[in-house]
Amino acid sequence: MSAQSTDIHLRKLRMGMVGxxxxxxxxxxxxxxxxxxxxxELVCGAFDEVPERGRAFYSKVFIDPxxxxxxxxxxxxxxxxxxxxxxxxxxxxxxxxxxxxxVAETFLEAGFHVICEKPMTTSLELARQMxxxxxxxxxxxxxxxxxxxxxxxxxxxxxxQEGKIGEIKKVIVEYPQDWLLTRLELQGQxxxxxxxxxxxxxxxxxxxxIGSHCANLVHYITGLEIDELCADVxxxxxxxxxxxxxxxxxxxxxxxxxxxxxxxxxxxxxxxxKIRVYGDKSSLYWxxxxxxxxxxxxxxxxxxxxxxxxxxxxxxARLAARIPPGHPEAYIESFGNIYLAAAASIRAAESGVxxxxxxxxxxxxxxxxxxxxxxxxxxxxxxxxxxxxKEF
Length: 392
Ligand code: NAD
Description:
Helix content: 25-40%
Strand order of the largest sheet: 13-12-11-10-6-9-8-7-14
Strand content: 15-25%
Largest sheet: 9 strands, mixed
Number of helices: 13
Order of helices and strands: EHEHHHEHEHEHEHHHEEEEEEEHHHE
Number of strands: 14
Bound molecules: nicotinamide-adenine-dinucleotide
CATH architecture of the largest domain: 2-Layer Sandwich
CATH class of the largest domain: Alpha Beta
Number of domains: 2
CATH topology of the largest domain: Dihydrodipicolinate Reductase, domain 2
């Protein structure tokens, strides 16, 4: 093995992964996103809840078999005992939702930085506890609300911050999918199985899975906080134990009105996340399925289209692009951008030296806000009342 610098600014960060084993969905996306900028290397993992399958996975990701662990606890213990120039810098948690908290707690307490999938936990109470653990550990905590990693989401945020939109009056965000139109979980489909089991997904189904992305994206672009909301939470598939369709009316703190709709039973839809932000000067429109274009509408003027990769974009939007305009960048790069930002945060935390420029990423506060959103929507759906946003 060639010698590697011990200076954290001159070497790759060492990443471990919990979850993301054979047949898993998002773990492979994380690995591609994390590794694409040559800042990070995968060195170990506890990839599966079945220890033998997790250990065998070393041959698929080409890591040292000794470092494909049977359980996440064994991984935290053994990695913490390795010399500083070998052990991981951070762990990436890509398990079903109910495991986020115990795994994050274990690694934070063992002294590692954490990148965690959303929703951060399965309850607001656990989310608040997580915030306390992160504060006490003094470690970096990154939440992969990856839609904030798209260059055009960053451009939308910059336009709002520049005042281009004016005072925001209304936000419409929607995320329809169709993949749970039938009871796929009864056919044993892995991703459907745990997402429809409240013991693993938490009390929210579609709401936690993709509604949480909608709420996070609105907050990221507009900075608006929710005052109160009125939700209609439905389970269309007979016998399913969690929601599969959610419609929410929202009052934001500045008086703006919002409509948020997430659905996994909308026939023919793929991943049709869209956001419209209406201000008193102009309006924005962005669609995740055509992510390299951001539309600006103003009364009496032609439509303006911001396109990824151009010099006229905001610094954050420019930093988030890799290749020339017109060559599409999308989902995997959005994770790449979260990992780039995470790597910068970890290097800064370890060395005390901030880079001259860097991308932003969601963190533990976004996770707590996300769980407050989920619990407020569920309560409003149950009581059929306008409900104040929960303290978080
Ligand atoms: P998945 O079922 O495809 O994969 C989960 C993996 O976790 C599997 O490899 C499983 O073996 C492993 N696992 C379960 N328990 C474990 C344990 N105790 N120890 C080690 N490994 C364990 O699920 P998925 O669709 O990849 O979702 C995983 C997480 O990612 C969820 O929290 C989900 O909400 C989130 N997610 C986020 C996005 C996004 O766009 N940001 C997209 C999909 C999923």
